[in-house]
């Protein structure tokens, strides 16, 4: 990893870390990235999130990131986007809450144990806030997808059901999405 990272201008780069062949070093580096990413304010921040989004879409059943704090990280990034408009408007950070919700949804769509980890990590509240429309209908759509995956399992359904407004908000989103999309296209 040292040779690969020496050419990289970003210390602790996610993509350089992923090239690490020593599993122990790689795990500890990924854990650090997930722990530190929400508190950073770097221009390149969207790049690792985009990479994680691609990984989650391609390998939703891969457990590598689940125990390393990916759900805590994604939940914290959604909250950051909701609470810190200056950060959200900077560079390409506007995409991060979308990617974060999508990552949560991808990792929870097939594996109940991943969904349980996500619920324990506290992802439901930030997803519900996205569903409420605190950003755009695009984030609402990925939030309802993630919440829908979490609601499909017996062990995680009650956590979603505790937020009684999820069903009503989902119905409102479904009935108005086409209108919102058409207005954006015009």
Automatic annotation (TrEMBL):
InterPro entries: ARM-like, ARM-type_fold, ARM_7. Residues 7-180 form the ARM repeat N-terminal plant domain. This is ARM repeat N-terminal plant domain-containing protein.
